Amino acid sequence: MYPLNPKAVYVHDTVAENDRYMARVQRVLDGLQKPVEPTFYTDADLPAMVAGGLLAERRPMGTRADLCDPSLLFNTFRFDGKEAERVACLQKQGIQSNWNHSGLLGHYPFHWANYNQEGDPNRLHKVCRACWRIHQQNGCVHQCHYCGLGGLLISSVNVEEYCHWLGKLIDKHPWQLTYLLDDDGDPPALEPELGCLGELIEYFGTLENRYLIIHTKTWNTEWMRDLKHNGNTIIVWSISGPKQSRLLEPVAGTTEQRVEAARIAEEAGYQIRYKFKPIIPVKGWEEDAAYTAKLIFEKTHPDVISLCCFMWMEYADMMRRLPAELLDEDCVAAAEAAVEELGTLITRPFPPHTRRNIYETHIREIRRWNQDVPVSISTESFEMWNDLADLTGFTALNYPCGCGPFSPPGAPILKCHPVKTAQRFDDETCRGTSPR
User: Fold this and answer.
1) How many degrees, rounded to 5, is the angle at CA 175 between CA 171 and CA 181?
2) Structural domains in the chain?
3) The pLDDT of residue 98
4) pTM of the complete model beyond 0.70
5) Exposed (0-12), middle (13-18) or buried (19+): which is 300, by Cβ within 10 Å?
């Protein structure tokens, strides 16, 4: 587990009342750099905890004067169908329900991501695939400057009950082959002490043609060697060049550490992948792209590589989170000039011609070492897919995806229609599913 010094540790009563769950928490407590006396709480205590600043540290890391490890909060997912009742109780006390508080309440272990379907506000400007996403944690220890998920790490520890209900969700959705874990967390950080991710990996190891995808920046994979994964876990590294990894992602693995962690996982039989995501054009980003591509293929054998520029925010917000002196001046100038042009598009702040140049450079460096590995772009626009069609060899409807619902090992070109095939089914047998 990562060396951590949290300011506080909170334990929900549903954890404290269960010896197995408390044993998991105790192992984490024993692994901390300094002893921390846990605070035990109930749902009734949450309003006072929130008013007292429980979520105050949840702000972009790059806007903080100091960086610190997040506080830890251990609870359980509730599969009792009382989500609305708990939310209403909080609302009566002036606490609004949003994703932070849903995490605190143990709601929505599984949620339906309706990408490119009706109701998705970005369906015309972002290519992604509708699917069920699964969660164990909310929050992260990596302190990446651009991220707002630091400050508080929420972990749900009732993994056995979780796998029971996940199995029912999987049974109702035979079209979904792969399940991405925690796009709002990085679960390897507390392992193997917490003992939840290993249980989930081994659960997927009992399934036929169903796969877990772990998306991570971690250096921490040595403990995974002896798990009974049966080839049913895929690990996708968010990879970045040396300058970005060291200066903007301080607690995540460095470029070299991530590739070494991937090498260990591959040696242990896991399928490994990479996403250059988010690609931040720091000064010297072209050299970093060349170095990182060379290192990847010297050490490992990914079955797909994805690319995604830094996006999802306006220019002013980017400059608030990232140190200007580290960024490529031409890219920053292009982003500033494109503010009005891009408006509120999800692909901002960098304009299309800047992003295209970044992608073309990365593809060229990848092809220098490997002519065959599929290269795709992640959460990008339909226009960018068209612009890069000659280089990628794929379209927005058939590309091999690093983490989507049709992405088993080997990352095949899709034979199905990714939007039409993805259909949601859930009822009382899939408790805790998100209404989104």
Assistant:
1) 75
2) 9-392 (3.80.30.30)
3) 67
4) yes
5) buried
